[in-house]
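Hi all, posting the design record for the shared folder.

TITLE: backbone redesign
STEP: 1 of 1
STRUCTURE INPUT:
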């Protein structure tokens, strides 16, 4: 929670002002029952109407002051908590985008979404309620006891005898509550993951008649969240009835003992009326403390989960590494990598590309093609070996500089619900000419056939356009900023052979200086590449031109023969 406190520290002056205003209003509010007892015991008995009016007017004024100060303090508390959680949520989002892919895998996407939504809400409510109730409730509680002790010590002892029991119950339950609410948030992460997976794959689920199965799986996660939340809520709900029970016993004893004392002339009726008012105030204060501890339990549990992300150390740091003298643009030097650090996903990969050359990568599903690209983009660091761009090890290049070198189309890329122009521009403030030229090279001629052209809207994830149209828009996005290195990860699988050939010709003529890496399932998409890398189970089993591989690599020949047969 040290990180969360760093966000609260600048808000301390504003919080102190709010506390002072809240303190003043609460003290004034505490005077009201005492003033009532003075009116009843002194002026009503003396039938002093003038004094009753004066003191009654004073009570109205105090009530107005208490109301005004509470409203002002609450508004200040709301402003502080709003600004606090906005900064936390913004930095949490920024940190989420900056942590490495390995760290993202460790947290999981659903957990990060949960921390950014429900956890920040719980933290916001804790900070807000602590400002509102954290001052008011203790003052009403302690102040009420202090005033009643001065007014009627004997009756106050009844109340004081109950307080240690109530305090023990609140502290014990709140400590248990933090653990249970942490468990609830973890189960919520799992439920969000189930929901995301089901919504993302809804068409596949429906096509395979797996709707009932997914309903049952989501129901299990939903029940788990409900049960954990139920256990936490049941534990926290013990405080209210327990407090009511103990305080009502105390109130009964106060009335009985007070009646005897009034009857014996040891106290005045007005004092008993004021005491009962204070008793009600103290009861309400204890109820506030109970609610505050519920919010505290949730907020602390959520704050710890948020701090875990914010305190995550940066893995992909820029390092001072020696340069490479080889006159190439991209070089992999004996690179090996494993996601789980058990079985290697890539084994001893070595190759080099000169600027402007094209590398085609082919291999079976799971052979490590996309993993190789992720290492080049430094989403992960290689376990062994080195990767160079130009003469620099990529670990010595800043992320900002490194990623501007690339234009990338990933295997499972996305489109926004926005105009075609904005989807290609992607917030980079590119010129209309750059956008149009990129769309032309990407063979996205269908844009001109649409009535609104580049201003036309498309649905989220390109749901209202075909797979081939979506891929061409994504390719246009990758080309628009004229990158030094282009990576096309199975980005032409939905294109027909004619369009695919036209795209390859346009890339070669319009982006001759760019180094291109093309991952493909079809040999026809990469057969004219300067180099072709064949992967199998993370290992290089072939490297060369198409003709060389047809002679030297039996696996490549088998793929070619199968695809030729398929076309035939």
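Okay, here is what came back for every position:
SEQUENCE:
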């Amino acid at each position: 929670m040290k990180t969360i406190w760093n966000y609260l520290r600048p808000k301390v002056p504003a919080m102190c002002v709010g506390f002072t205003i809240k303190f003043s209003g609460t003290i004034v509010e505490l005077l009201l029952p005492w003033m009532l007892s003075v009116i009843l015991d002194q002026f009503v008995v003396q039938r002093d109407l003038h004094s009753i009016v004066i003191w009654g007017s004073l009570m109205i004024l105090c009530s107005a002051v208490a109301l005004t100060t509470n409203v002002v303090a609450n508004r200040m508390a709301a402003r502080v908590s709003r600004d606090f959680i906005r900064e936390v949520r913004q930095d949490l989002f920024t940190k989420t985008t900056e942590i490495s892919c390995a760290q993202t895998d460790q947290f999981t996407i659903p957990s990060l979404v949960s921390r950014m939504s429900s956890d920040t809400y719980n933290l916001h409510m804790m900070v807000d309620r602590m400002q509102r109730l954290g001052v008011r409730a203790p003052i009403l509680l302690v102040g009420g006891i202090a005033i009643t002790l001065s007014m009627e010590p004997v009756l106050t002892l009844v109340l004081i005898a109950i307080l240690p029991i109530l305090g023990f119950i609140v502290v014990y339950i709140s400590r248990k509550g933090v653990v249970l609410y942490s468990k609830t948030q973890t189960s919520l992460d799992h439920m969000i993951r189930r929901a995301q997976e089901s919504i993302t794959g809804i068409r596949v689920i429906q096509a395979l008649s797996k709707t009932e199965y997914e309903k049952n799986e989501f129901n299990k996660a939903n029940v788990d969240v409900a049960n954990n939340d139920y256990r936490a809520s049941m534990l926290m709900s013990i405080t209210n009835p327990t407090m009511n029970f103990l305080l009502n016993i105390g109130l009964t004893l106060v009335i009985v003992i007070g009646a005897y004392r009034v009857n014996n002339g040891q106290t005045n009726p007005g004092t008993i009326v004021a005491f009962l008012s204070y008793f009600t105030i103290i009861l309400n204060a204890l109820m506030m403390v109970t609610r505050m501890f519920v919010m505290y339990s949730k907020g602390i549990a959520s704050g710890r989960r948020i701090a875990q992300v914010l305190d995550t150390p940066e893995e992909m740091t820029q390092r001072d590494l020696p340069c490479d003298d080889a006159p190439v643009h991209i070089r992999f030097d004996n690179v090996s990598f494993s996601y789980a650090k058990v079985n290697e996903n890539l084994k001893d990969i070595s190759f080099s590309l000169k600027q402007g050359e094209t590398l085609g990568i082919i291999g079976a599903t799971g052979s490590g093609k996309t993993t190789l690209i992720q290492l080049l983009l430094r989403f992960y660091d290689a376990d062994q070996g080195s990767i160079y761009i130009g003469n620099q090890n990529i670990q010595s290049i800043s992320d900002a500089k490194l990623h501007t070198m690339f234009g990338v189309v990933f295997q499972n890329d996305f489109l926004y619900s926005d105009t075609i122009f904005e989807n290609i521009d992607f917030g980079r403030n590119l010129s209309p000419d750059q956008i149009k030229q990129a769309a032309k090279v990407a063979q996205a001629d269908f844009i001109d056939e649409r009535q609104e052209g580049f201003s036309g809207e498309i649905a989220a994830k390109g749901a209202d356009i075909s797979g081939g149209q979506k891929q061409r828009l994504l390719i246009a996005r990758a080309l628009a900023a004229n990158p030094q290195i282009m990576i096309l990860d199975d980005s032409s699988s939905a294109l027909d052979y004619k369009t695919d050939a036209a795209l390859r010709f346009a890339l070669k003529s319009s982006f001759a200086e760019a180094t291109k890496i093309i991952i493909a399932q079809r040999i026809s998409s990469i057969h004219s590449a300067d180099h072709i890398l064949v992967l199998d189970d993370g290992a290089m089993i072939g490297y060369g031109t198409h003709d060389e591989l047809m002679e030297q690599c039996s696996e490549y020949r088998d793929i070619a023969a199968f695809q030729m047969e398929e076309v035939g």
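COMMENT: The mean pLDDT is 83.
Let me know if anyone wants the other runs.
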